[in-house]
Amino acid sequence: MTTAGPTMSSETGEALVEGVTPDRMPRHIAIIMDGNGRWAAERGFPREFGHRNGASAVRAALTECARLGVEVLTLYSFSSENWRRPAREIGALMSLCVDYCEGEREHLKRQNIRVRVIGDREGLPDEVREAVVHLERATAGCTGLTLVLALNYGSRNEIARAARRIAEDVCAGRLAIECVDESAIDERLDTAGLPDPDLLIRTGGELRLSNYLLWQVGYAEMHVTETFWPDFGVAELHAAIRDFAGRRRRFGGLDGGDPDGR
Length: 262
Ligand code: IPE
Ligand code: IPE
Ligand code: MG
Hints:
By secondary structure, the chain is α/β, with parallel strands linked by helices. The protein has helices at residues 36-42, 47-68, 87-103, 105-110, 126-138, 155-171, 182-186, 234-245, and strands at residues 28-32, 72-79, 114-118, 146-153, 199-202, 221-224. The model is unreliable at 1-5 (pLDDT under 50).
């Protein structure tokens, strides 16, 4: 079984992404997979066709992230606001979720990929919830990359649910008010235990977060590409990683990390 971590080819000693040294690789990549509808419209097809091709594009990005030793890949698959779409499109997206969970299960296990789903599961149709639970259970023992699927996910909803849990814990005497800090919130988010995203990629060209991981991307580097999601492949992923590797992450400090700023 493979484990997370390889960032150099063991045979040649070369970087797995040209020009990127291992210390510059992101641990966690989050993607807003946007542009499926426009991709289909450009070809004269209904939006559902774009979604199906979008689902097919997941495999290449995921396999490459696993090969590169990326620890976590989080994919925005359906937002809590996407219920505003026509019933037919929502139905197609829900069926696609079930098909993905069932159709990819064995392949994901073979790749040693563990799946975790974030979002408000209570609002998902029964068959989607069941498929998701089955996939999570089937891959629970995998130790390679963690694939996080954001399904019926909205960041504000996630934060509100975390706040409710904090209130419950305080009322029940399990948590002192003085202990309500950033880690208390972190621990109650759906992403508890995962590192924050280092790199946030958005396909389809829009310059917004669309209620995605608002808390977690506080210091993520952003990469936006005009490419629509169904066309996003390994070359585009490498370009995003190269872009990330060239950034200076200061986290509010100064270049060089000298606390005196010298
Ligand atoms: C992203 O593609 C997929 C989902 C939101 C489920 P869109 O469906 O938003 O495609 P565009 O942005 O309309 O092209
Ligand atoms: C974000 O894309 C949600 C997903 C990719 C699942 P949207 O297409 O829903 O975002 P907006 O509506 O353009 O902000
Ligand atoms: Mg969109």
